[in-house]
């Protein structure tokens, strides 16, 4: 079954891909990433919404795209989980001074108690997304049941609507990382004098600072003057009150 899954997945990938979103109809096995940002670490939630017809689900095998090297499956109390490894044609730098010589090719969840039809569960994988915005990641998935199986491995060809497929593979498209766009900061504009305007800008900034300092300088004197006038007003008010009192 695993060899069949890989062969079908590889054939589907060469057929051409279109964006159909993170998930198709709710009745399908789908993948929902918590981020699609290229190069980011992501949690991918695979939803298993039903059995094979009325038959309960026993195994869910998720094929991992070749662009992904390492995967950390989340432990689900209702399932046993296994990582299926395969050798890499060339070692890959692990970013910590070492190398990967094999990759996680598939993650297989086996239900400890078959998941009945009409009940759903979620299986979560943690992985680092490839740094390739615009690329579509496909996760061909085979759902085995007590009777029969559903191979969610179909990938839409160019111009084909993924919602029209009977058993679409879970997939999503990587988006650009934040800050990868063009720099929006304003650049100095030449004024024809051979200067890019930075000197004028600096001079203007100095002038503004000087003006601000001049405006702020008298503030302490004004504050003390206001306090003195306020105190004098209180004294005069008190004297007026005493003089206006009737004599005994």
Can you offer a commentary on this structure?
With 248 residues, the protein is α+β, with helices and mostly antiparallel strands. Helix content is 23%, strand content 31%. It is built from three helices and eleven strands; from the N terminus they run H-E-E-E-E-E-E-E-E-E-E-E-H-H. It has helices at residues 2-13, 198-216, 219-243; strands at 30-33, 41-48, 57-63, 72-73, 79-93, 99-115, 121-128, 136-138, 141-145, 149-152, 171-173. The chain has a five-stranded antiparallel β-sheet, covered by helices on one side. A four-stranded antiparallel β-sheet has the order 1-2-7-4, with no helix packed on it. A hairpin with a 5-residue loop joins strand 5 and strand 6 (99-115). The longest helix is centred in the C-terminal third of the chain and has 25 residues, at 219-243. It is globular and about 50 Å long. The chain starts with a helix and ends in a 5-residue tail after the last helix. Residues 7-26 and 183-226 have low confidence and may be disordered.
* SSE string: HEEEEEEEEEEEHH
Helix content: 10-25%
How many β strands by DSSP? 11
Q: Unreliable stretches, pLDDT < 50, 5 or more residues?
A: 7-26, 183-226
What topology, given as strand order, has the largest sheet?
Answer: 5-6-3-9-10
Figure out the total of helices: 3
Query: What general outline do the C-alpha atoms trace?
Result: globular
Structural class: alpha+beta
Q: How is the biggest beta sheet arranged?
A: 5 strands, antiparallel
* Residue share in β-strands: 25-35%
- What Rg, in angstroms, do the CA atoms define? 35 Å
**Global mean pLDDT:** 76
Straight-line distance between termini: 115 Å
